[in-house]
Write a structure and sequence with these properties.
Elements (H helix, E strand, L loop, with lengths): L1 H20 L5 E4 L10 E6 L5 E5 L2 E5 L4 E4 L12 E4 L5 E4 L6 E4 L2 E4 L12 E6 L2 E7 L6 E7 L2 E4 L9 E5 L2 E6 L2 E8 L2 E9 L13 E5 L2 E5 L5 E6 L5 E5 L12 E8 L2 E7 L3 E6 L5 E7 H4 L7 E6 L4 E5 L4 E4 L7 E3 L8 E5 L5 E5 L4 E6 L2 E6 L6 E6 L5 E6 L5 E7 L2 E4 L9 E8 L2 E6 L2 E7 L4 E7 L5 E5 L4 E5 L4 E5 L5 E3 L1 H6 L7 E4 L5 E4 L4 E5 L4 E5 L9 E5 L2 E6 L2 E9 L2 E2 L3 E4 L9 E7 L2 E6 L2 E5 L4 H6 L3 H4 L3 E6 L2 E5 L4 E4 L5 E7 L8 E5 L7 E2 L4 E3 L8 E9 L8 E7 L7 H69 L3 H23 L2 E3 H18 L4 E7 L8 E4 L4 H12 L6 E10 L2 E8 ...
Parallel strand pairs: 60-66, 68-70
Antiparallel strand pairs: 1-28, 2-3, 3-4, 4-5, 6-7, 7-8, 8-9, 10-11, 11-12, 12-13, 14-15, 15-16, 16-17, 18-19, 19-20, 20-21, 22-23, 23-24, 24-25, 26-27, 27-28, 29-57, 30-31, 31-32, 32-33, 34-35, 35-36, 36-37, 38-39, 39-40, 40-41, 42-43, 43-44, 44-45, 46-47, 47-48, 48-49, 50-51, 51-52, 52-53, ...
Length: 997
């Protein structure tokens, strides 16, 4: 009873598996005609990024769903016959082939591992991880035994003759495992050496007896041996030595031979064995309990026999069948709802409309046949008198109106009922009518080359009303609001039958999110669907709002249709369905996928009836049923639609991208590349981007964007959308951050500003020092020049004075006035010494200057026999010992007053010298009551002797020098007295020097 129960349960499970997978048939074949270098596919693996790596006998390919990147001999491979790819933890794809080397592909570049002193041909098996290294075993072609090899830092260290040649070697859990006779040893790599110890004995001594296995597999903790064309499997646990025998007849339905069997794991410790027969692929779970997981019928997966299959791979994204002669089949686990209709005579026809009884009509311009299709019944109506059928419009249940374009600018109308057609003369007009919507049997709205019209028949003739003159393309009837929509790509005329008409221009379209209006459909609930050139919008006229539908589809070249409140969208991607249940109430979309154009590339026409959707394509006629209410309630379009992956390459590193990720960009490299892995990819992958939400979208140049315009140190959002011929991704946001140079950071800016400030200070200081040095040098030069000029002047003053004094002394001696002459010369010598001291200094203390003036005046008095008297008065507020005035400035003026004024006066004269200090200005007044400047001038002119006044010239030179070089301000003013005659000389000295005590 137990055996009967087990057999019954197994049969039931097989039936369930068969039922589950019997309808699978949506597949895509990749072969030498669309990307593969060979139809012989050995193996494949999906890397950590999601790329599919396909190993063939003519190279290995990297596939993202759109394009292939082939690696072969031109990329440096020593052998293009790649039978086994393996990805390590670092993302390197190691290539297994029979060659004298082993290498890997990393960042799309092949690198050869280095073999020191190695001259053998490799046959890598059991590649696995070992810490940061790679371990594999290889049977040398010249020998029968297998030896382990370890790859450390791209250098391969083979271990020759470490184990006996008669042993079986495997790599398990990153360590070599040896079966030697009845004993099991485990090896350990230590410092590039192998040490090993025994871990168990094989419990069943007959495990290897009589078992001539053609293939061996080791996985994790077990050794698996199977006879290639038989159904028995033997399992040996390395660590316990226990053995298990499995008869696959318990799980396998057919009795044919096993063509291929291999192990694959969904998780590190969950291995599965895949036996492949002529008819089925089995997935059997190994472990403590062995059971059948799944069962696939080969003819429902691929159109090849089981003996041509070289492997099977399945996961959530890729489900692939590898073959030896037909390439690779990618199966998408979706049911095939596209039923090919053979011998349908409408392939070269154009759909023109449907009648209310569910029949569709197709017009053949070549044969002039109107083809009627209903419930797989096809009838032809030959219309020899009709030139071109524009549209067939149902009038009532039994009658349709045919719009015919005659050669010229007029149209004929025909009424058809059943298989009979008669002229409809009541609607005959000289207009080229393309579309018509009947409001009643005698009231029809039409579109002609002259505009949007209404034709009314009153029993005798037809009256026409033109609502708008424009070249409209199509019409839609809003039965709920009783309005007719006539529209072009950029304009809508809404005729409210019982209200006010409305015109909407292209500016209004933009508010609906529409750029090019292609189709308008209005259902019985009042939902308004607007078909843009690449998207579908649900519009609410009450609020003016819109909702975009089917955002993950590229709806270019797709058609929009309505049947019994079911919205149908047909295009390259397949056929989509929406069930409308109320105003703005839609079911989830349900999709029949035309994956990678497996059935067709272009839809020429679509008709809807209770039988389903009839699609006329370049590849023939297909029919699909309508989904059930329960199917449309749950929807299915997201099963595979969102299984794509964004990738970003920057600085030759590849990163997965999720919405909201941040990328730090170096100023040295501002170029970013994008890629998408999409198993449903169709056509060419393209990208669009925008820098801010609700701004214009721009196409990406290939797959690369350059972010030169980014400001350093700021986060800038980049919005990105990927799309192809049928699909469009969700919008993702990537925050780009341009890493600033150190001088663009806050601290860097401070440092730069501080450096600029310091440099500025240094420059200013240097400029000041240099300027000061120049000024000092200039001042030194000026002072030397001043000293020379002063010395020159003083040299003129002293001789002039000396000559006069000596002349007086000689006169006294001549007059024999010896004592007076002695006193005169003595005082002269004292005064001369004082003048010599003054001539060496530019400034003299006022007190000393007054004493010198006294000595000088008294010498002159003795010379002129007391011809004048004098007085020198200094103001009480003047500290004569503290003020310093220019040397020898006053003496020439006093000399002029005596020699040119007082000397020639009749009678005794008087000389007054006063010093006053007001507001830090010293005023020296020298006043005499001599003959005056005019008298002196007249006297010299009368004597006809031109006498040069050295004193005046010296005074001018002294004043000029001190004002120019010393920063002094000296003003000399001459005033002539009238009564009595005389001269007043006023000397004002500003910026005086003060003696330092």
């Amino acid at each position: 009873m137990i055996r009967i129960f087990i057999c019954f349960a197994t049969c039931l499970l097989l039936c369930l598996c068969l039922a589950s997978w019997a309808r699978i048939g949506n597949q895509y074949n990749i072969n030498i005609y669309n990307g593969l270098p060979s139809n012989n596919v050995y193996n494949l693996v999906k890397d950590h990024n999601g790329y599919l790596w396909i190993a063939t006998d003519n190279g290995i390919l990297k596939y993202n769903g759109y394009t292939f990147r082939l690696f072969n001999l031109q990329d440096g491979l020593s052998n293009a016959d790649i039978w086994f790819p393996f990805e390590d933890k670092g993302g390197r794809m190691w290539l297994g082939s029979i060659a004298d080397e082993i290498g890997y592909i990393y960042k799309d570049k092949y690198t050869k591992a280095v073999f020191p002193n190695f001259h053998h041909v490799l046959y890598p098996i059991d590649i696995c991880y070992y810490n940061d290294a790679i371990i594999f075993s290889t049977p040398y072609v010249a020998n029968t035994y297998r030896s382990p090899c370890i790859v450390v830092h791209d250098t391969v260290f083979p271990f020759y003759n470490v184990f006996p040649p008669e042993g079986l070697l495997f790599i398990v859990d990153g360590n070599p495992m040896l079966i030697l006779g009845k004993e099991i040893y485990r090896g350990f790599f230590e410092h590039r050496k192998i040490v090993y110890r025994k871990i168990s004995d094989i419990k069943d001594s007959s495990f290897f007896e009589g078992h001539n296995s053609r293939s061996f597999c080791a996985n994790y903790d077990s050794y698996v041996s199977y006879e290639k064309r038989h159904s028995n499997i033997r399992l040996l646990n390395f660590y316990t030595g226990n053995t298990t025998y499995i008869d696959l007849c318990t799980f396998i339905a057919d009795t044919g031979p096993i063509n291929l069997m291999y192990i694959r794991a969904d998780s590190p410790y969950q291995p599965y064995i895949y036996p492949i027969t002529d008819r089925y692929i089995y997935k059997i779970r190994l472990g403590s309990t062995v059971r059948l997981q799944k069962m696939f019928r080969i003819d429902s997966l691929v159109p090849v026999p089981g003996n041509d299959i070289s492997g099977f791979y399945e996961d959530a994204v890729w489900n692939c069948v590898m073959t030896k002669s037909k390439g690779l089949y990618i199966n998408y686990n979706s049911e095939n709802y596209f039923i090919k209709k053979e011998n349908y005579p409408i392939e070269d026809c154009r759909y023109v409309g449907s009648s209310l009884d569910g029949a569709s009509y197709w017009w053949s311009a070549t044969t002039h046949d109107l083809v009627r299709v209903k419930e797989d019944q096809v009838n032809k109506i030959h219309l020899a008198a009709v030139d071109q059928v524009n549209e067939l419009v149902p009038i009532n249940k039994d009658t349709c109106l045919i719009l015919e374009n005659k050669s010229g600018d007029f149209s004929n109308y025909w009424l058809i009922g059943g298989r009979h057609i008669v002229p409809a003369y009541i609607y005959k007009k000289y207009y080229e009518v393309s579309k018509a919507i009947p409001h009643s049997p005698n009231d029809i709205y039409t579109i002609s080359k002259w505009g949007f019209n209404e034709l009314k028949y009153n029993g005798r003739d037809v009256k026409e009303h033109v609502w708008d003159i424009d070249r409209y393309k199509n019409m839609a009837y809003d039965t709920l609001r009783q309005a007719i929509w006539a529209y072009t790509y950029s304009k809508v005329y809404i005729h409210n039958i019982y209200g006010k008409d409305t015109i909407i221009t292209q500016n209004g379209f933009r508010n609906w999110g529409i750029k090019r209006l292609e189709k308008v459909i209005i259902d019985g609930y009042g939902n308004i669907f607007l078909k843009d050139y690449d998207k579908l919008v649900l519009y609410d006229p009450a609020t003016g709002t819109h909702t975009e539908l089917l955002q993950n589809y590229n709806l270019c070249d797709a058609g929009l249709y309505l049947y019994n409140n079911i919205i149908v969208v047909a295009g390259r991607f397949g056929v989509l369905f929406y069930k409308v249940t109320g105003f703005h109430k839609l079911s989830k979309p349900y999709l029949y996928q035309n994956i990678k154009n497996a059935y067709y590339n272009y839809v020429k026409g679509v008709s809807l009836s209770k039988d389903g959707v009839l699609i006329n394509t370049e590849n023939g006629i297909y029919q699909t049923p309508f989904p059930s209410d329960s199917e449309m309630a749950t929807g299915n379009d997201s099963i595979k639609l969102h299984e794509y992956k964004f990738l970003m390459r920057y600085n030759n590193e590849l990163y997965p991208v999720a919405d909201g990720d941040t990328l730090r960009i170096s100023p040295a490299n501002r170029s970013v590349q994008f890629d998408v892995i999409n198993p449903l990819g169709n056509g060419t992958l393209k990208f669009m981007y925008q820098w801010a939400a609700n701004t214009s979208w721009f196409p990406l140049n290939a797959n690369e964007i350059n972010v030169d315009q980014l400001a350093a140190g700021k986060y800038v959002p980049l919005f990105l959308v990927a799309y192809d011929n049928v699909w469009r991704s969700d919008k993702i946001k990537i925050n780009l951050y341009l890493v600033p140079y150190w001088w663009q950071t806050e601290w860097g800016t401070r440092i730069v500003y501080s450096a600029i400030f310091i440099v500025a200070i240094l420059l200013v200081t240097s400029a000041v020092l240099i300027t000061r040095k120049i000024i000092i040098a200039h001042n030194d030069k000026r002072n030397k020049r001043l000293e020379l000029e002063l010395k020159s002047i003083y040299a003129q003053i002293n001789p002039h004075f000396i000559f006069n004094i000596l002349g007086s002394a000689l006169l006294l001696i001549k007059q024999m006035r010896m004592e007076e002459a002695y006193a005169h010369v003595s005082k002269f010598s004292q005064l001369l010494r004082a003048y010599m001291r003054s001539s060496r200094n530019k400034y003299i203390i006022l007190r000393d200057e007054i004493e010198n003036l006294r000595d000088y005046i008294e010498l002159q008095q003795s010379r002129f026999k007391n011809k004048f008297d004098y007085q020198i008065v200094a103001g009480e507020n003047i500290d004569t010992s503290a003020l310093r005035i220019p040397s020898l400035l006053l003496q020439p003026i006093v000399e002029n007053a005596i020699n040119h004024g007082l000397f020639h006066k009749h009678g005794k004269g008087h000389l007054d010298i006063t010093f006053q200090l007001v507001n830090d200005v010293l005023t020296c007044t020298i006043e005499d009551d001599g003959i005056g400047r005019d008298g002196s001038k007249a006297m010299y002119e009368k004597s006809h002797v031109k006498k040069e006044s050295y004193g005046n010239k010296m005074i001018e030179d002294l004043v000029t020098i001190f004002n120019k070089y010393e920063g002094s301000s000296i003003e000399v003013t001459y005033t002539d007295r009238s009564m009595p005659a005389g001269t007043i000389v006023e000397i004002k000295i500003k910026n005086m020097r003060h003696e330092q005590h």
